[in-house]
Write a structure and sequence with these properties.
Chains A, C: It comes from Pseudobacillus wudalianchiensis. Chains A, C: Residues 4-286 form the Dihydroorotate dehydrogenase catalytic domain. Chains A, C: The active site is at 130 (nucleophile). Chains A, C: This is Dihydroorotate dehydrogenase. The complex is a heterotetramer, with 2 copies of chain A (313 residues) and 2 copies of chain B (259 residues). Chain A has 10 helices and 14 strands. With 313 residues, chain A is of the alpha/beta class. An 8-stranded parallel β-sheet of chain A has the order 3-14-13-10-9-8-7-4. Chain A has a single domain (6-297), classed as Alpha-Beta Barrel (TIM Barrel). The longest helix of chain B has 12 residues, at 121-132. In chain B, a hairpin with a 4-residue loop joins β5 and β6 (66-72). Chain B has helices spanning 76-81, 121-132, 152-156, 176-182, 196-205; strands at residues 3-16, 19-25, 38-42, 53-56, 59-61, 66-72, 89-96, 110-116, 136-143, 161-165, 172-173, 189-193, 210-214, 230-232, 242-244, 251-253. In chain B, the strands form 3 sheets. A 7-stranded antiparallel β-sheet of chain B has the order 4-3-7-1-2-6-5. In chain B, strands 11-10-9-8-12-13-16 form a 7-stranded mixed β-sheet, sandwiched between helices. Chain B has a two-stranded antiparallel ribbon with strand order 14-15. Chain B is built from 5 helices and 16 strands. Chain B is of the alpha/beta class and 259 residues long. In chain B, 15% of the residues lie in helices and 34% in strands. Chain B starts with a strand and ends in a 6-residue tail after the last strand. Classes of the chains: A alpha/beta (313), B alpha/beta (259). Chains in contact: A-B, A-C, B-D, C-D. At the C-D interface, α1, β5, β6 and α9 of C face β14 of D. The complex binds flavin-adenine dinucleotide (FAD) (2 copies), flavin mononucleotide (2 copies) and FE2/S2 (inorganic) cluster (2 copies). One flavin-adenine dinucleotide binds at residues 38, 51, 53-56, 69-72, 74-78, 118, 121, 216-219, 250 of chain B.
Chain lengths: 313, 259, 313, 259
């Protein structure tokens, strides 16, 4: 058995490293750079029922050790994703996690029902935390009852396990995690971006056309670590951790905090080869440190024996 | 093919106020086959600045595996780039995007190349290739003022060259369109790169039947994956059509994208 | 009139730049480096009724473009602050803003009553947002009704204007701001630190003995800007902005977002001369950009005419 | 007086595995009047790494306005510091804190100087000053292993020198306390710097009547303003007594602070 193989609800992963949603499109571009088969999984760009153009540009801005984005869930819509993107991606031997978004419960349910029926999709990631769309989004991600209700509705129709993606823009992350656990979530992915803004000194106006955007990258890593540390002790759900990962040390830190797998977002932009590089380095790190299996590290910062809930046996 | 390489600085020169000419060497140059494409640079091995910077390829020298960029040192990233000295390494991803189609101009035809500010650089490689093919080139270069102007002489070696400056300190006082009108410039095909206002003015001018313009947009990935750099297409009733500047562009046929 | 002179409730400032609470002690150490008279004001370290030792060490950790701290409100207690620190600081011609903390309403009220009676204190800063103490702190900063009630109680006894310091660890910052405005606050200071954590790979344990700590520095600037942008449009209170300021450009960005003055925290550690340097550079910047008065910039990112509520006439 | 200065690198040398000896030049050296004080370094002009790094002063050369530090390149900051070359500039704040009191040792007495790992460096300046004063010095230096050991010869020039390594690859196998016992070392006053476990063991040993130890703690400001680096005092029933390592220390009389 490999040191990296990881089993999570619905997912058997060669390794626990995957690109985060929105930072990898539907895989086409990166497939020109390396063989996608090496990846643990792929979290595809958020899919909504109808095609969306998203927000006006500029959509990104740089910040100290981070970046802001306000893409606004641009995507070709459910139909094209089903017909074009998923079949194309299925040529690779890599699990697909479909990121599902919407403006109201019905949208989420509709997309979840259809896309979870695709033979190419192994799990859903419920995006209840996108800060960059006018309607919906925010309340689903910040009000526990609303999040729980949405999770339940989606679980009723989904044919694959449902991971709920938590927003860090809340007073109490544990409350949110417990609410979606109550709602029947099979796992958590965290964290989405922190709401932020930058102003252009030349124009005096926000750099992003959408004004505010989501902060990602190394700057937010301490917030992600703290939230995973808290949530992993209070729920039984597996956690796919993300937020500022760019080195193998970061990955270890996420595991120690309580993650069962990790996703890489922004770092794909600074180094498009980051995922295969980290997969290799993680294996080497474990070997050099005589760790038999990566899951042994999960939760070690708060539990002597680690969490070990999702061990690959 | 897109590659990522630590390339070596051959030379770095300050050629006008805050304007630098940087020549790098490495294998990646063998992939550079078209004028108007760009590279995406990580200017520091550290975390900050986090994002890569898109810079056009201004001159390709495949024999020596070298290429040249010209850029303005303005923000955090380009200022750090300007500190690189011969022998230093730079992390280059490229070549990216689609460039200016040289084949759209026929031997014997006249091409008008219009550049504004730091939109001028990619036109230099383009002009050389057009001239090699026997296409006559006319160059119109617009700058804020004389102190930030560059490469006028180099372009002049390749064909008629007109300069416009906003403050009139060099050439025609005003914009590139003023110079075009003043000298009644005409040609078969237009190639342009510069600020959107300039591109829009050129589109309205309808100087040639055919034209190609190069756009700028803030980028995330630079390879088409993140949807940071999209623009609308013209005549799109649904409003959901788009092009990605980084991978569909940065060069588009005039009339294709909404400016 | 100087370009920098600023009037805020209770405060007439030579310039709008002051050290943030907790990053400047009670001024003694920095007084060895430069003349404190140059400062716009001084926000002194949080004062509690009884002396506090604070948390065990390590109390600080570095993060990408930021730092975590879990000092735990160490301070010599109200009596010593009244007897020793305030009289000492009063030798300088610089307004003192006293940062007030506690574990329950009564503590805050007691400290506020006494310290606001000092002839040396021009305003209070109500620290309802310290993430680093076990009791109190957090609820005051995250539940609007609790914050409002506390503000009211403190206002009843305070002899000087009361600024409330908002925590960024909330789902809805505008709601919090409005609550304390309803409670009678005279102004806002924002933001305090984001809750974060770092784990030491060698030990597998959190670096901070307190486990979690407050994230400050450039990393959090986009969050601060966003919150000030939102709050300044929705309340009439003046805002002293802080969070990651280290350059004059940062200060301008805070003003454009909606700040009426600014405070410098973490940057005092990387460069202990930062405050006097920024005061000089800000004046030069305004002069070079032909801006008659710094207050013209307040809120310019969302209002053509700026906010101009707290103009120095 | 505390000053901040961009000092110039005179030399940087790798003297043991990951151990560097760095000499800087500048006016600030004239303020250095006591062994055991430290400087606070900003290793980069960029935002990251954000915090300064505290490093002890190992040797002071006021005639040439130079001082030397010895440090282990381990984390982000010290690794960047290790890249500095002669002629580069480093942002130094210092000298900070209170050092080892040379006056507590009388001419003719014997001082035992015990250093562990990167706690060894400040003892070098101390030993020179003690010897100048006519105090006999005995040095006990503890390291993990031979490959990270340094300055044994330099200390030997100043007095008897014993080395202990955990793996026995050099000198006594074990800890400094093992070497002290093995050679039955005795003296009038103890000066020590190193890991807390070592300091604690020394305190228990009660080798001398008088002793001074130097502590390490993670720091924010380095000047006493932020309360990051406090430690408890011994025999403090209230639990609210404290000392700041950066400004009250890093050197404390043995028995003053809780280890
Ligand atoms: C396809 C393309 C080709 C380009 N070619 C050149 C060239 O040949 N010479 C040249 O001088 N400039 C060129 N630019 C513009 C250049 O990318 C920006 O000037 C540069 O990124 C600014 O970085 P900075 O570090 O100076 O500024 P910062 O303000 O530090 O940049 C912050 C962020 O904003 C982005 N950004 C800021 N301004 C621009 C801009 N105008 N366009 C795109 N992104 C921006 C940066 O890339 C970075 O992500 C080109 C842009 C594009 C899209
Ligand atoms: C008074 C004093 C004197 C010192 N003298 C020396 C010396 O002469 N030679 C030497 O090699 N080391 C010395 N140290 C330890 C040195 O400060 C740390 O090794 C160094 O700060 C680590 O920085 P980094 O960039 O390698 O690690 P990073 O892990 O990148 O550091 C991250 C943060 O943690 C802090 N930190 C990490 N380890 C320590 C530590 N052991 N002590 C204090 N802060 C730490 C850093 O200062 C920084 O703020 C001294 C420490 C103190 C307090
Ligand atoms: C450009 C961009 C687009 C994103 N789009 C999505 C999205 O469509 N759906 C989603 O759930 N998260 C999206 N995210 C959030 C990331 O998946 C991830 O949660 C976040 O960026 C933190 O990870 P990082 O710091 O590694 O980037 C996006 C992030 C970025 C930077
Ligand atoms: C070491 C440290 C101690 C602090 N102590 C206090 C405090 O006692 N009271 C308070 O209201 N804020 C305290 N703060 C928060 C700062 O005043 C400020 O709100 C925050 O650090 C954001 O600003 P900055 O990024 O400029 O540091 C502390 C911050 C730091 C870094
Ligand atoms: S920059 Fe990412 S799609 Fe163009
Ligand atoms: S480091 Fe700030 S008080 Fe010691």
């Amino acid at each position: 058995m490999s040191r990296l193989e990881t089993k999570l609800p619905g997912l058997t992963l060669k390794n626990p490293i995957m690109p985060a949603s929105g930072c990898f499109g539907f895989g086409r571009e990166f497939s020109q750079l390396y063989d996608l088969d090496v990846l643990g999984a792929i979290m595809i760009k958020a899919t909504t029922e109808e095609p969306r153009y998203g927000n006006p540009t500029p959509r990104v801005a740089e910040t100290p050790a981070g970046m802001l984005n306000a893409i606004g869930l641009q995507n070709p819509g459910l139909e094209k994703v089903m017909e074009r993107e998923l079949p194309w991606l299925s040529q690779y031997n890599v699990p697909i996690i479909a990121n599902v978004a919407g403006s109201q419960v019905e949208d989420y349910v509709e997309v979840a029902r259809t896309i979870s029926g695709s033979p190419h999709v192994q799990a859903l990631e419920l995006n209840i935390s996108c800060p960059n769309v006018k309607t919906g989004g925010i309340a689903f991600g910040t009000v526990p009852e609303t999040a729980k209700h949405l999770t339940k509705k989606v679980k009723e129709v989904s044919e694959v396990p449902v991971y709920v993606k938590l927003s860090p823009n809340v007073s109490n992350i544990v409350e949110m995690a417990k609410a979606v656990e109550d709602g029947g979530a099979d796992g958590l992915t965290m964290i989405n971006t922190l709401l932020g803004m930058r102003i252009d000194l030349k124009t005096g106006k926000p750099i992003l056309a959408n004004r505010t955007g989501g902060l990602s990258g190394p700057a937010i890593k301490p917030v992600a670590i703290r939230m995973i540390y808290e949530v992993s002790q209070q729920t039984n759900l597996p956690i796919i951790g993300m937020g500022g990962i760019s080195t193998v040390e970061d990955i270890i830190e996420f595991y120690l905090a309580g993650a069962d797998a990790v996703a890489i977002g922004t770092a794909n932009f600074s180094n498009p080869y980051i995922c295969p590089e980290l997969i290799k380095e993680l294996d080497e790190y474990l070997s050099a440190n005589q760790i038999d299996h990566i899951s042994e590290l999960t939760g070690r910062s708060w539990s002597k024996d680690g969490k070990r809930t999702y061990y690959c046996s | 093919m897109i590659k990522k390489e630590w390339m070596t600085v051959v030379s770095q020169q300050n050629i006008a106020k805050n304007i630098y000419e940087l020549t790098l060497q490495g294998e990646l140059v063998q992939e550079m086959n078209e004028p108007g494409r760009f590279v995406h640079l990580k200017v520091s091995g550290q975390t900050m600045p986090l994002l890569r910077r898109p810079i056009s390829i201004a001159n390709i020298d495949q024999t020596n595996s070298r290429f040249t960029m010209i850029y303005r040192a303005e923000g955090e990233g380009t200022k750090l780039l300007a500190e690189k000295k011969a022998g230093d390494q730079v992390d280059v991803l490229g070549p990216l995007g689609h460039g200016f189609p040289v084949n759209e101009a026929q031997t014997g035809e006249t091409a008008i190349l219009v550049g504004g500010g730091i939109g001028v650089p990619p036109l230099y490689e383009l002009s050389q290739r057009l001239n090699e093919k026997g296409v006559k080139t006319i160059h119109v270069l617009g700058f804020q003022s004389a102190d930030v102007a560059f490469y006028e002489a180099k372009f002049a070696e390749l064909g008629e060259t007109y300069v416009a400056t906003v403050d009139g300190s060099l050439g025609t006082k005003g914009f590139v369109t003023d110079a075009i009108r003043e000298f009644n410039l005409q040609g078969d095909i237009l190639y342009s790169c510069g600020p959107v206002v300039m591109l829009r003015a050129l589109e309205e001018l309808q100087l040639t039947k055919k034209g190609f313009i190069s756009l700028e947009e803030r980028m995330g990935c630079g390879i088409g994956a993140c949807f940071a750099c999209v623009c609308h297409t013209q005549n799109d009733p649904t409003g959901t059509e788009y092009r990605k500047v980084c991978s569909d562009g940065p060069v588009f046929p005039m009339g294709e994208v909404a400016l």
